[in-house]
Specification:
Order of helices and strands: EEHHEHEHEHE
Number of strands: 6
Strand order of the largest sheet: 1-6-2-5-4-3
Number of helices: 5
Shape: globular
Radius of gyration: 15 Å
Strand content: 15-25%
Distance between the termini: 16 Å
Helix content: 25-40%
Length: about 170
């Protein structure tokens, strides 16, 4: 699966400019479209359960985005699923760490822990706060358009939102 540029929704940045976007103020949310069908309840129940919160980003997706953005920090990882050699693990509480001080080029990958409640919303807000510190954050999140954090943060703060076709397989 490749990222389809025709599925791109741009918010607050002209990504077609010859000089390119101001990457220091860019926050990108990569999301999967909500699916219709009988498997949705089971899939959401699994993804939102507290039992599974550290899904590993598919390698093909990370490589494609890393080629585009050049990440130097994985802000929510563990030793087994980190996509960058420089990462913030659970014990460091990345929601309280200054990402700019840990990311020399200020290019951050974020596949936040999933769970019920406002878990993802806290990570989205943290990415927006770090954007104000000059950090570019690309995050992989569910398209949860019924959530307050989606409208209050993603829709207002993300310079770009890309919707992936189909479902990602995490492993």
């Amino acid at each position: 699966m490749t990222l389809d540029p025709s599925r791109l929704l741009v918010l607050g940045a002209d990504l077609s400019a010859k000089t390119g976007p101001d990457l220091s103020s860019l926050m990108v949310a990569i999301t999967t479209k909500p699916a219709n069908g009988s498997g949705l309840r089971h899939d959401l129940k699994t993804i939102l359960s507290s039992r599974y919160q550290d899904w590993s980003t598919p390698d093909w997706l990370f490589r494609q985005l890393d080629n585009e953005f050049g990440f130097d920090l994985d802000a929510a990882a563990s030793a087994w699923n980190a996509k960058c050699t420089n990462f913030l693990g659970k014990e460091e509480n990345a929601l309280t760490v200054n990402w700019a001080s840990r990311s020399p080029r200020r290019r951050v990958w974020l596949n936040p822990p999933y769970g019920r409640g406002k878990v993802v919303g806290r990570w989205v807000k943290k990415a927006a706060d770090e954007r104000r510190n000059g950090v570019l954050t690309v995050m992989l999140i569910n398209a949860r358009t019924s959530c307050t954090w989606w409208h209050d943060t993603v829709m207002r703060e993300a310079a770009e939102t890309r919707f992936l076709r189909g479902r990602l397989r995490f492993g």
